[in-house]
Task: inverse folding
């Protein structure tokens, strides 16, 4: 027996030992998986004070949509509501600021209209009426008359009026003589057709018959009683007689 020695059993060492024993590898893998799982769970439950999933930067704002595109999009989905009736005194495009919640009414009141004026204002009492120029007197015809006394006698006299037409055309005429308190006996034209005679309270009027020719003359004579030979007035178609 002494000659027989039991061979000593030796275990491999180093990498050969690890490969030859697979349960060691399995154990190490399980340990590593458990460690990684614990780290993952801890990181999921407590992200930490410096965790910031969104990078810093200005807030994202949606770009404004043009009014025409918004209106067309709204019309495609549904009909636009009817516009609200316009409030009197406000423009259809006017936009008022929002009314606080404590105000009594949200609808603005229309402005008060001025009461119509019933009576026109009276003109000032002391205002003078506008001055109106008097109408110009009508132009007198170009007739000339010369007065003279031909003969005097007790209680009366014979007078004469020489009438001349200074115009370039034939003219009619009217002689008027005033003798206050006197009386006309008769009157006549020398050498031509007679005219018309009228008398009233000492004033007599003689109207020519045919028109007097241009540049021609005629003599009117008259018999007056109980009067001064100088008449109070003498005119020929409105013009004063000469010789008085």
Result:
């Amino acid at each position: 027996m002494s000659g027989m020695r039991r061979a000593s059993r030796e275990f491999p060492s180093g990498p050969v030992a690890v490969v030859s024993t697979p349960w060691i590898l399995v154990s190490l893998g399980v340990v590593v998986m458990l460690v990684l799982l614990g780290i993952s769970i801890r990181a999921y439950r407590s992200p930490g004070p410096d965790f910031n999933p969104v990078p810093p930067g200005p807030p994202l704002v949606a770009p404004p949509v043009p009014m025409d595109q918004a209106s067309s999009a709204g019309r495609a989905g549904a009909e636009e509501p009817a516009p609200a009736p316009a409030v009197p005194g406000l423009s259809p495009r006017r936009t008022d600021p929002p009314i606080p919640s404590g105000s009594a009414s949200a609808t603005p009141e229309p402005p008060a209209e001025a009461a119509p004026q019933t009576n026109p204002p009276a003109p000032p009492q002391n205002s003078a009426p506008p001055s109106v120029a008097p109408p110009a007197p009508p132009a007198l015809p170009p007739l000339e008359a010369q007065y003279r006394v031909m003969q005097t006698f007790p209680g009366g006299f014979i007078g004469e009026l020489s009438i001349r037409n200074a115009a370039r055309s034939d003219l009619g005429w009217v002689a008027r003589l005033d003798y206050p308190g006197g009386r006309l006996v008769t009157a006549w034209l020398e050498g031509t057709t007679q005219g018309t005679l009228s008398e009233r309270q000492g004033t007599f009027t003689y109207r020519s018959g045919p028109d007097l020719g241009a540049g021609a003359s005629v003599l009117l004579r008259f018999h007056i009683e109980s009067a001064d030979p100088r008449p109070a007035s003498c005119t020929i178609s409105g013009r004063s007689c000469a010789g008085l």
